[in-house]
Amino acid sequence: MNGQMTVVPVERIERAILSIRGEKVMLDSDLAVIYGVPTKVLNQAVKRNLSRFPPDFMFQLPALHPRIPTGFKSISPAVTPQDNQETNPV
After folding, report:
1. How many domains does the chain have?
2. Beta-strand (E) ranges in 1-90?
3. Is residue 1 part of a domain?
4. Sequence-ordered list of residues with C-beta below 8 angstroms from that of 48, at least 6 positions apart, any chain
5. Residues 20-75: pLDDT tens digits?
6. Does a structural domain hold residue 56?
7. Average pLDDT, stretch 3-28?
8. pTM of the predicted model as reported, rounded to 2 decimal places
9. b (16+ CB within 10 A) / e for 56-90
10. Domain range enclosing 16
């Protein structure tokens, strides 16, 4: 960021929250947009600071899962396409 604080509308954040298997999640790409940084930079920052996050903060979905990019090491069971039926559109 350029040092200025930008207020992100609550609606923008709410649209980025998905429900998968009853858990509320956000894609790394959506979170990066909210913070105004490239996804790669966000992922690198999280990986450098893993001790600051709870163990269940992130997980990676299988690459063959439709519509959802991968980004982190898996720490939860794989999500199947049938589970995506609960997902809210962004």
Report:
1. 1
2. 17-20, 23-26
3. no
4. none
5. 888 888 999 999 999 899 999 999 999 899 899 888 888 776 666 556 555 544 44
6. yes
7. 87
8. 0.58
9. eebbbbeeebeebeebeeeeeeebeeebbeeeeee
10. 10-86
